Amino acid sequence: MRIRPLGVTPENNIPQVQLILGSQWGDEGKGKIVDLLGKDAEVVARYQGGPNAGHTVEFDGEQFILHHIPSGILRPHTQCIIGNGVVVDPAYIMEEIDELQARGIEVMGRLFISQNAHLILDYHKALEEAIESGNGNQKIGTTRRGIGPAYSDKTGRIGVRMQDLLDPDRLREKVHHNVVLKNAMIEKVFHAQPVKESHIMALLKQFTERIKDSITDTAWMLNDSIRKKKKVLLEGAQGTMLDVDFGTFPYVTSSNTTVGGAFTGLGVSPHSVDRIIGIVKAYTTRVGNGPLPTELTGETGERLRKIGSEFGATTGRPRRCGWFDATVIRYAAQISGLDTAVITKLDVLDDFDEIKLCTGYRYQGKMLDFFPTNQVVLEGIEPVYETMTGWKTSIRNTRSFGDLPEAAKNYVYRMEELTGVPISLVSVGPGREETISLE
Ligand code: IMP
Fold this sequence. Notes:
CATH superfamily of the largest domain: Adenylosuccinate Synthetase, subunit A, domain 1
Number of strands: 20
Strand order of the largest sheet: 9-7-5-2-10-1-11-15-19-20
Structural class: alpha/beta
CATH class of the largest domain: Alpha Beta
Bound molecules: inosinic acid
Shape: globular
Largest sheet: 10 strands, mixed
Number of domains: 2
Strand content: 15-25%
CATH architecture of the largest domain: 3-Layer(aba) Sandwich
Radius of gyration: 22 Å
CATH topology of the largest domain: Adenylosuccinate Synthetase, Chain A, domain 1
């Protein structure tokens, strides 16, 4: 067994700009880690996704689930940015702000939204509902938050942006044009209920009143903060395998969840990032349809779901569960250049006699040690496992790596060996304090 300490950065030398992203299919526990690292951050910026995300943070016995707003909002000293790469649902974000404010978290004056971020409007949600409902067994299993249709309008160059809210004539014209176009599709193609332009305009009026002072050039703001040597966290949503380019297409979300999404979604340079942190759950989950090579459909999967409370934070849907897949993390590390990994939910494995890790895949009798991006190959692979002994004791009160049971240490060491990514933090429970630093 190796003696070298895990981790890469001494505590007194926190990198100035850190980027946090999910390494699996989302729900790795990014919210807790952003909140934790937010202790030292002055700015936290979210770069892609929208209200499909559900970042859960627990402290002082309270639980917060954030959808658009960066988890940094729970640290009173941070400024929070929603970048141009995010899609914003006006009704939803107003509810989110109201809930935070009602619970004593100051939001206005600390939250800044990119003037170039696109809006999710009623017709996006109506279209997605119609597409997903009618798709038979081709369903993606989306969150039905209008994410895909909103990003389609962005790349189709007809989307409505935050800055349009400040330009009433242009806003009216754009919304009208889109409503006519989308209602034709909704009614004629999907035979569903059209959306009301008056409803959208009334909502946008209310939204503009509330949010106008928060709309700004966040790319400039963020670069200025970086120039002034402020500590910055860049926060991704979802995970590597849901990336529209590198994930298990078409069972993906509509944005770049991997490292590139941070640069296009915020307008910062790759040179400005000092450390890239991959969040890695100690086992694997996915919500929605599509490939999940290590999925456990029987009793073991059910146990993981129950112990790990694996139900979607946004939709409440049960998550599909499986053993840890090192191939997926190697793939995430390759694409996003992970400097370090944070392991979450290790405590969920406390009660298992045996724990399996997928080391690679077998395909047509040959071993593959990388994640196949060809859909035909992916459909034909069989995961190859190695089995480790469980530790059979609660680790939730453990606060130092040395105090973990040998079997738990061995499991973490093995994850590190198989993925090649140094581990810097292990989370053993949802609370801020339920964390083991290896740095
Ligand atoms: P969409 O992002 O709503 O379009 O959904 C596309 C796929 O991404 C579906 O499989 C969703 O379940 C999944 N997905 C979207 N957001 C999240 C998330 O925050 N965590 C986990 N899965 C997500």
